[in-house]
Amino acid sequence: MAAPTVVSSGADNPFLDKVLYANTQYKSEIQKEYNSLVSQGNTALAAKVEKLTNVSTGIWISSNALVPTISTHLQEALNVQKQTGKEQIVLLVIYDLPEKNCASSGPHGEFSYANGGEAKYQGFIKDIAAQLQLFPDVKVAIILEPNSINDTVRNLSTPLCANVASGHKKGLAFAISVLGALSNVNMYLCIPDSGFLLWPANILPAAMYIGDIYTAAKNLNPNATTRGVATDVGGYSTLDQEVKYHAIFAPYLTAVGYPAHFVVDQGRSGRNVTVGSDKCVQGAGLGPRPTSSTANPLLDAILWVQPPGETDGNSTRCELYGSNPTNIGTGFWDSRAFRSLVTLANPPL
């Protein structure tokens, strides 16, 4: 059985000398895959899958109904912390802005601005804060609202995105003002990956947009802070691509008064694939394992934010795994996709 991942890096890195919490939900999926492979006689692939038993992945809070599960995970992390004497850090992904994914076919969420979405989202954030405050001794890293900045900054010509941009900025600022004031929380605002922001026309407007959000958050609560930004969440860009991007973008963040620290999702980024879709991309493999031993002062940690094996929407590209795209929705487990990611892992398992 694989050992838990202990991370260490610079003195101010929130992941320093902590164990990345491996949540029981993902462990269960790994165990099911292992059992299935063993029963099929595929012991070679089963051995690789078993190595993922204690890997940490993001816990996505994408609806009001999931908010109570936060305390379940934090209690489990606290139990492990007490049993092992090793401090845990839990990776949460907050993902419920009103009318999210404004430029894509992804889920638009349960809140609408026309039906009190701004106030409902604020209530959602306050409820999350209440859960986190119950466990002050458990450290939490929060990835805030994947796709929001990506969609609004690059798609303002799309009517829905233009209509929600102001609301998204307010929502992100409010979330930072509340969650970023908690002593056990480090926040990373999710931003686009290198494939978008390295275009000269995009990089300055994006930095200014991020700076505006942070300024608004500090105006709401001067005690609120963020640690940095998260990149390549749910994406496929390789680590070297993202690290180069971080180095280029960091001065822009500093210029607008935003902390220039990064975490990067590498759960499906092991291979330099040609991406024509962000879903079920052919030839993708598991990337570098979660760690903060990055030898890079800008990069706090390599993470697996999007759990490998969980689907992230419909696409005809999913047919490349033999799956039926009409029957695959966001957040479901796709065994074929997972096994392909394991087989093509880089570094290999």
Beta-strand content bin: 5-15%
Helix fraction bin = 25-40%
What is the class in the CATH system?
Alpha Beta
By CATH, the topology is TIM Barrel
Number of domains: 1
How would you name the CATH homologous superfamily?
1, 4-beta cellobiohydrolase
CATH architecture tag: Alpha-Beta Barrel
Can you tell me about this structure?
This protein has 349 residues and is α/β, with parallel strands linked by helices. The chain has one domain (56-343): 1, 4-beta cellobiohydrolase (TIM Barrel), CATH 3.20.20. The protein has helices at 24-39, 43-50, 69-84, 117-133, 148-154, 159-179, 194-197, 200-220, 239-255, 335-343; strands at 6-7, 18-20, 59-61, 88-94, 139-144, 185-190, 228-231, 262-265, 299-303. Helix 9 links the parallel strand 7 (228-231) and strand 8 (262-265). The chain is globular. The two termini are 13 Å apart.
